[in-house]
């Protein structure tokens, strides 16, 4: 199968910051103002405290979506109660929420009222096609019902040896890379990114990206960062999708002088072409039947093969779901692994303790599926990393009607009165502060901001047990909760564990002296001097 590699001029678009404002953006924003002002906002949010807007037109949005926005999110968590008011475009108000009763309402109790924002659904539709992250309501429920079994515990058991096979290849890649390396540094982001893509490729798509050397990984990464930089003009998408036929939209995209939009267009074209080629290959193998299926990567047991045999999704939907698995499962997992290795490098005693545990368990060939989940230090290291460093920092929803938001503890309003619940007006966008919730001192105790796997090895504090945190992953918001919670959280956890078992047996990880700057994209990413990379000093353990 031939897949195309994107050739992209990376210097042609800004790597950080907010794009400049040209005529089309001004038009889009004027349109947004019109829509928001028409909806006139209920006064109920005026008493909620929050940071003052940076500008009238854009409010706090540039800070919220900035790639350098860690401090903004930290300040929100530190300086306000569990619900914070943000200023959005043209004076509209949004909420930033990390109170757990409020999160429970948004994600579970009143989930049918809080959809993914229209602009996100529309952008996801343009990028990926019809899929889980471009649909809501009934259509989304149908999609979940069809997709859920593809990552069930029985499937994970089947995928387990496939993941080990890939991790062993990664071991060899690291060996080669560290031999080739001039200064002893190995870029673990690239290696772990390729590995995570291969995990999803083989287990999810029955396809080896490593074998086809497609540019999917680079393309996906750049697409997500370009999409995030376009959040403001994206607000016009639901409107454009409604009025314009697709050929006209395409012309429009070509005409609008936004480098990021053109980059996104080219990337989407490449991803689409690759995905269609993969799907065609699978169709042919299924048509041939018998050994043609077994010869495929994943032996026909991957998620896509299951979906194709179940025959409930259209061709476009299959492509969409395929794109979304790549999109949702790659950068998130590789970033979490980078954070994991970073903390293990900072805590050599824990690294040694973990190495000891996995080496003993893995002494007679690969650890068994049932055994890997019983290793306490391995489990604690993964959970603590996912708590401290959730790869996605926020997740957004939009209220489709007026709704009351409960609070777990009263807050003080701007007028010094006590607020016990909030009337959220229809149309309000609510950002769930995943990171802020995970690190709450109220819940986790005074050491909430320290990476301490030990906290998982003894009974958790009563405040954690009482908090009733509404995550699909016990006690954490990292994978969100409710019907839109991450479909792949068990798969992601298993991927991390398999990699840690194989890599810690073989290597010792230390930090290089390069300064790592973490940027906030759709998932966070480590950079060195503006380029995505995560150099580490990797030494092979002798003996
Ligand atoms: C550490 C790794 C991961 C993290 C932190 C993570 C986190 C998340 C979060 C926060 C969401 C909710 C997004 C939103 O609604 O705003 C989500 C959704 C999703 N994730 Fe993951 N994810 C990870 C790995 C994976 C993997 C490996 C897969 C695929 C096997 C996957 C598949 C999905 C899908 C399909 C959705 C959309 C669910 C829906 O809208 O119904 N994720 N994930
Ligand atoms: C890693 O690769 C080396 C060289 O091929 C091999 O000797 C070693 O057993 C491998 N280790 C693991 C855990 O796969
Ligand atoms: C609220 O209380 C603070 C201190 O207790 C005071 O400085 C401030 O003026 C009060 N604000 C209003 C609106 O009453
Ligand atoms: C509510 C709360 O305690 N939030 C904490 C979340 O994490 C930030 C740092 O990222 C802390 O400063 C907050 O106090």
UniProtKB/TrEMBL annotation:
Family: Belongs to the cytochrome P450 family.
Keyword entries, A-Z: Heme, Iron, Membrane, Metal-binding, Monooxygenase, Oxidoreductase, Transmembrane, Transmembrane helix
One family name in Pfam for this protein: p450
Binding locations of heme: 486
Keyword Zinc recorded: no
Organism for this UniProt entry: Collybia nuda
Essential cofactor(s): heme
GO terms for MF: heme binding; iron ion binding; monooxygenase activity; oxidoreductase activity, acting on paired donors, with incorporation or reduction of molecular oxygen
GO cellular component: membrane
Pathway membership, UniProt: Secondary metabolite biosynthesis; terpenoid biosynthesis
Record's protein name: Cytochrome P450
Localization annotation: Membrane
